[in-house]
């Protein structure tokens, strides 16, 4: 297996009213091809910032990020944008569908940005919506969809360009338990299909679908363990560190 | 009620302190309108005080009776004799306390730089007169010896003074002095030119071919305020005869004063029209600002309603907030008006002395009323719409969800437009009210630019035409007046375009705010900052396209309505219109690109996180 994403000594500090806050503190991380990794930790521990740094939505203050063989932490905004089209699919807690576009238009958007012909982009988008069981809502605007439907559309959008890695930031944080189950089922299918996945979550149930679990506190990775050994996640978490409000 | 006002005032003060930007923008746009109105009103009355001073100093007439007839035209003699008899009779009418004249007028011509001008020589015996004693500003009044006294405007135009020589009917005449009167407007805008001569000099002028063209009788009444009633009582006896080409008329001092400063009135009228147009456009600015603020503050409104503040108090707070801006704009605008008015009034060629720009309390109230009306119209609709939302929906609110894509934007998708263009069109459909408001403002601006271009072409044509015989100096003065009007129209067009740009900037900024999350999402998917900029520009260009499509024909239509008078008929060249159609959207795109670039440079991660 080869590394899809590799971060070395990553640092990110934010200005705050009283003193600067180090959101990511010398983090090293390797995400292998076909691997599903969950990142857990209490609120404000820096897990979303880490995801943003790895996906080029934020720039690190120090350290190095590699995507495949390429060092990417110094890329310009435009270079990152072009890279994301092909290599990274995002799923957010707030869905972040484009309000003005219908469900199917949202899904085909990354393909169109990549230059895929319209007809093929539309067919791919429809296939994905069917796979994710939301095709009948294809012509609706996001505000007409339920939370679960929106997140399915967002997952379809993340997958449409067959990215190297899908990065999901609290993908179930805004869903009821039934929709959460649906979405986790989707992620489990992706894991089984060996889609590389990086999952940031509070939810132990969500984290449990991963092959490997990283835990963070105060910006640093404080522990990691493999979950593919069949050990229940609660026991894994209890054995790692005190995760405060995450348990 | 008092407590409502107190709460509303506190809310208004807090909002003004917390977010001064929109209030400052409204203040700027409103001040442009109130300043133009204040300027127009200050200029409008600035000549009256100077005229009144000259009127008092010269024992000016209260009622004048004039008869004019073409020289050597048969059939007029009987009518003129009848009018002379009536003039003698009216001089003894009840209420008349002093009589001047009747003064006989000779018609001829005088040489001025660049040509020849029609001339009236008023014959007066040397001495003092109980009515209209012209005020000598240099040299001396008529006395013994040959010579003429020049009316002040004529002396200024030809640059002659006491001791100089002027050429009348091709012969030299000594200038005895220069004098000012209110019985005639100042040359060259008031024609013909006027000199005063003794009967002895008049004989010489007759020998040179000058002919009698009429006379003027001047009366002072016991009370000058009775002038209108006096004229109404006697008008039937002094009507012109339809069978004669001679003209007879009675005129009050108030009418003569109103006609005496036509250039100032035209300039002031143009400024007032510009001010009203600017005020109308400012309504759009206020509306856009308030609507934007309301959508931004909808959650605050919900919170206020949840803790018991009534919708009326919230709207009152909005009104107080922007009412305070209107009061400041009125004060600043009037100050600007009073400051600049002397500069403009001083360019007048009709004013009798130093202009005194002033504003009556009524005029101040008018300017303030316009400012408050602008704020009221701009505030009420979005204000009420904002507070009508249920408290819960306000508390839960984000930005307004988009509408279903319209037929146009669906066509755009089908037409395989680039993605940023499709997104832009979809965004513009999100807030059609703002699009229309924006377009309305810009339409005025484009229309005024077209009018200014037409006026420029027409005046250029006017300048190439040869002056009419006998009108050399007055045509030049009219040309200068038109130049001034052209400058005002062009200035107004620029101000309208500027206001349109401010509106466009505000609307684009709000659109950038409303669409920030969507654009951040698109960038997370691989959209570039450039595509964000293009998308936002396209979303706003619809308003500009609409403004160009409507503004050009509107401007041409306005020009057709304005066309006429002394201006040569002309249209606007197709090239100029094409330039307008191209440059306006380019300039618009440049303005809109500022908030668009700001949006494109915003870090996207904070926009994508869940609140």
End-to-end Cα distance of chain B, whole Å, is 38 Å
- Strand content of chain A is 25-35%
- The succession of helices and strands of chain A, N to C, reads EEEHEEHEHHHEHEHEEH
- Gyration radius of chain A, to the nearest Å? 18 Å
Largest contact between chains: A-B, 39 and 34 residues
Q: Determine the structural class of chain A based on helices, strands and strand pairing.
A: alpha/beta
Strand content of chain B: 5-15%
Major sheet strand order of chain A: 6-7-8-3-9-10
* Rg on CA atoms of chain B, Å: 32 Å
Q: Roughly what percent helix of chain B?
A: 55-70%
Give the helix level of chain A as a range of percent: 25-40%
State the distance separating the first and last CA atoms of chain A.
32 Å
What is the count of helical runs of chain A?
Answer: 8
Question: Unreliable stretches of chain B, pLDDT < 50, 5 or more residues?
Answer: none
Number of strands of chain A: 10
Count of alpha/pi helices of chain B: 21
How can the largest sheet of chain B be summarized?
A: 10 strands, mixed
Chain oligomer state: heterodimer
Shape, per Cα inertia axes of chain B: elongated
Strands of chain B, total number = 10
What does this structure look like?
The complex is a heterodimer of chains A (247) and B (611). Chain A has 247 residues and is α/β, with parallel strands linked by helices. Chain A is built from eight helices and ten strands. In chain A, the strands form two sheets. Chain A has a six-stranded mixed sheet with strand order 6-7-8-3-9-10, with helices on both faces. Chain A has a four-stranded antiparallel sheet with strand order 2-1-4-5, with helices on one face. In chain A, a hairpin with a 6-residue loop joins strand 1 and strand 2. In chain A, helix 3 packs parallel to helix 5. Chain A is globular, with a radius of gyration of 18 Å. Residues 243-247 of chain A have low confidence and may be disordered. With 611 residues, chain B is α+β, with helices and mostly antiparallel strands. Chain B is 63% helix and 13% strand. Chain B contains 21 helices and ten strands. Chain B has helices at residues 2-18, 20-44, 48-57, 77-91, 152-158, 199-207, 227-234, 253-259, 262-296, 298-306, 311-345, 361-388, 391-395, 407-414, 419-430, 432-464, 472-514, 516-525, 529-562, 574-601, 605-608, and strands at 63-68, 96-112, 115-123, 135-139, 148-151, 165-168, 171-180, 193-197, 211-221, 247-252. In chain B, helix 16 (432-464) crosses helix 19 (529-562). The longest helix of chain B has 43 residues, at 472-514. Chain B is elongated, with a radius of gyration of 32 Å. The two termini of chain B are 38 Å apart.
């Amino acid at each position: 297996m080869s590394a899809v994403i590799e971060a070395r000594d990553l640092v990110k500090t934010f200005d705050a009213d009283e003193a600067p806050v180090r959101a990511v503190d010398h983090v090293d991380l390797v995400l292998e091809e076909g691997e599903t990794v969950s990142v857990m930790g209490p609120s404000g521990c820096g897990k979303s910032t880490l995801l943003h740094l790895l996906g080029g939505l934020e720039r690190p203050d120090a350290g190095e990020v590699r995507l495949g063989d390429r060092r990417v932490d110094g890329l310009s905004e435009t270079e990152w944008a072009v890279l994301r089209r092909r290599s990274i699919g995002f799923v957010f807690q707030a869905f972040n569908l484009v309000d003005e576009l219908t469900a199917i238009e949202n899904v085909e958007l990354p393909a169109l940005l990549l230059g895929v012909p319209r007809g093929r982009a539309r067919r791919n988008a429809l296939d994905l919506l069917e796979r994710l069981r939301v095709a009948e809502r294809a012509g609706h605007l996001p505000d007409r969809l339920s939370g679960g439907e929106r997140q399915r559309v967002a997952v379809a959008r993340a997958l449409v360009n067959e990215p190297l890695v899908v990065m999901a930031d609290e993908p179930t944080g805004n869903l009821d338990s039934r929709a959460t189950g649906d979405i986790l089922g989707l992620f489990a299918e992706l894991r089984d299909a060996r889609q590389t996945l990086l999952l940031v979550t509070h939810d132990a149930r969500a984290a449990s679908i991963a092959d490997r679990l990283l835990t963070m506190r105060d910006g640093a990775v404080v522990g990691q363990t493999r979950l593919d050994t069949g050990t229940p996640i609660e026991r894994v978490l209890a054995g790692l560190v005190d995760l405060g409000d995450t348990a | 009620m008092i407590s409502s006002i107190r709460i509303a005032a506190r809310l208004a003060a807090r909002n003004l302190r917390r977010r001064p930007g929109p209030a400052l923008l409204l203040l700027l746009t409103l001040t442009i309108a109130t300043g133009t109105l204040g300027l127009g009103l200050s200029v409008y009355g600035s000549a009256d005080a100077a005229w009144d001073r000259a009127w008092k100093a010269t024992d000016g007439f209260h009622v004048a009776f004039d008869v004019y007839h073409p020289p050597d035209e048969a059939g007029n003699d009987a009518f003129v004799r009848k009018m002379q008899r009536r003039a003698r009779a009216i001089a003894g009418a009840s209420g008349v306390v002093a009589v001047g004249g009747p003064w006989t007028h000779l018609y001829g011509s005088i040489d001025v730089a660049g040509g020849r001008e029609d001339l009236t020589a008023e014959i007066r015996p040397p001495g003092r007169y109980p009515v209209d004693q012209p005020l000598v500003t240099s040299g001396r009044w008529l006395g013994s010896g040959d010579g003429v006294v020049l009316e002040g405007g004529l002396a200024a135009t030809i640059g002659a003074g006491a001791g100089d020589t002027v050429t009348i009917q091709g012969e030299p005449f000594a200038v005895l002095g220069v004098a000012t009167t209110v019985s005639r407007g100042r040359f060259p805008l008031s024609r013909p030119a006027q000199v005063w001569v003794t009967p002895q000099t008049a004989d010489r002028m007759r020998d040179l071919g000058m002919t009698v063209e009429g006379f003027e009788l001047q009366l002072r009444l016991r009370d000058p305020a009775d002038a209108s009633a006096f004229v109404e009582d006697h008008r039937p006896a002094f009507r012109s005869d339809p069978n004669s080409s001679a003209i007879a008329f009675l005129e009050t001092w108030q009418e003569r004063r109103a006609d005496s400063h036509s250039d100032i009135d035209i300039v002031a009228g143009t400024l007032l029209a510009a001010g009203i147009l600017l005020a109308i456009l400012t309504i759009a600015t206020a509306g856009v600002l308030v609507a934007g603020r309301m959508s931004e503050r909808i959650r605050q409104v919900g919170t206020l309603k949840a803790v018991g503040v009534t919708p009326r108090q919230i709207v009152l707070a909005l009104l107080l907030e922007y009412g305070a801006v209107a009061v400041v704009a009125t004060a600043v605008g009037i100050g600007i008006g009073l400051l600049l008015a002397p500069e403009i009034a001083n360019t007048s060629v009709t004013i009798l002395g130093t202009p005194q720009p002033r504003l009556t309390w009524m005029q101040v109230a008018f300017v303030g009323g316009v400012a408050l009306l602008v704020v009221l119209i701009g505030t009420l609709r979005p204000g009420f719409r904002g507070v009508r939302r249920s408290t819960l929906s306000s508390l839960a609110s984000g930005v307004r969800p988009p509408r279903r894509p319209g037929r146009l934007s669906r066509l755009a998708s089908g037409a395989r437009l680039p993605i940023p263009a499709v997104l832009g069109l979809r965004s513009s459909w999100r807030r059609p009210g703002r699009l229309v408001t924006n377009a309305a403002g810009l339409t005025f601006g484009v229309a005024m630019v077209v009018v200014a271009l037409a006026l420029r072409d027409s005046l250029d044509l006017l300048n190439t035409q040869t002056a009419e015989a006998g009108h050399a100096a007055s045509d030049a003065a009219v040309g200068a007046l038109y130049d001034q009007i052209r400058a005002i129209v062009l200035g107004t067009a620029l101000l309208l375009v500027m206001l349109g740009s401010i509106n466009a900037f505000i609307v684009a900024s709000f659109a950038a705010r409303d669409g920030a999350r969507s654009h951040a999402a698109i960038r997370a998917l691989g959209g570039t900052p450039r595509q964000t900029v293009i998308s936002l520009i396209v979303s706003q260009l619809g308003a500009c396209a609409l403004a160009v499509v409507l503004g050009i024909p509107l401007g041409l239509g306005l020009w057709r309505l304005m066309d006429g008078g002394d201006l040569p008929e002309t249209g606007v060249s197709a090239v100029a219109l094409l330039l307008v159609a191209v440059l306006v959207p380019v300039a618009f795109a440049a303005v809109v690109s500022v908030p668009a670039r700001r949006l494109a440079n915003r870090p996207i991660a904070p926009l994508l996180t869940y609140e």
